[in-house]
Design brief:
By secondary structure, the chain is an alpha+beta fold. It folds into two domains: 5-105, 2-Layer Sandwich (Beta Polymerase, domain 2), CATH 3.30.460; 123-195, no CATH class. The protein has helices spanning 5-19, 29-33, 53-56, 59-64, 123-139, 143-156, 167-181, 186-195; strands at residues 24-28, 42-47, 69-74, 84-91, 100-105. It has a five-stranded mixed β-sheet. Helix 5 runs parallel beside helix 8. It is globular, with a radius of gyration of 17 Å.
């Protein structure tokens, strides 16, 4: 049985609210606005009680009940915030574009970053997200964005490589370099390259 992105999003919302009394989960971004295309991810805000915030960061068990989780990564921008985290979740067995961007926050969250220190987050995983962004940019006809996305990806992992204008080859090269640095990203990298 195939699962639609809207069904997956609705199940995520229901699971989050059921996991924490007094919380509210809502769609954000293009899905909420009704402007999503085939390459749009799932943006969700989960507003949780302040006292429950630390426990709500253990999202894998909650979301695994919706769909098997392939990977969870926390954004470095809010890694030490006591009131907010941005969590990137990839589900297994769905299109690579359906990443869940989950903004877990309390009423007092103010979007001021409390960033991670160097080494507390995965630069290769972040660079692969840039590669996927480049795939989306090509698919959407935003060719001017592709080079910048790829160059930032290469820079993020300390590579001297840069985009050449051959997007599929550049994406494959960036993905390969990320896997060399972090072999456990091989499955995600293969999905990104296949999408390219």
């Amino acid at each position: 049985m195939s699962l639609s992105r809207s069904t997956l999003a609705n199940r995520v919302l229901a699971a989050l609210e059921a996991a924490q009394a007094g919380s509210r989960a809502s769609l954000r971004g293009s899905l909420a606005r009704g402007t999503a295309d085939a390459y749009s991810d799932i943006d969700v805000e989960w507003l949780v009680p302040s006292a429950a915030f630390p426990g709500c960061l253990a999202v894998t068990p909650v979301l695994s009940a919706v769909r098997p989780v392939a990977a969870v990564r926390f954004s470095p921008d809010f890694l030490h915030s006591p009131v907010q985290r941005l969590v990137f979740v990839r589900f297994a067995g769905v299109p690579v574009f359906w990443r869940l961007d989950l903004d877990v926050r309390t009423e007092s969250a103010d979007d001021r970053p409390v960033p991670a220190a160097e080494g507390e987050w995965s630069r290769p995983a972040s660079a692969l997200a840039n590669a996927l962004g480049a795939v989306k940019a090509v698919a959407r006809g935003r060719f001017d964005d592709v080079r910048g996305l790829l160059d930032r990806g290469f820079e993020r992992i300390g590579s001297d490589s840069r985009a050449t204008g051959d997007a599929p080859a550049d994406i494959a090269r960036l993905a390969a370099q990320c896997v060399r640095l972090e072999p456990e990203l091989a499955g995600f990298a293969a999905e990104v390259v296949a999408a390219a």
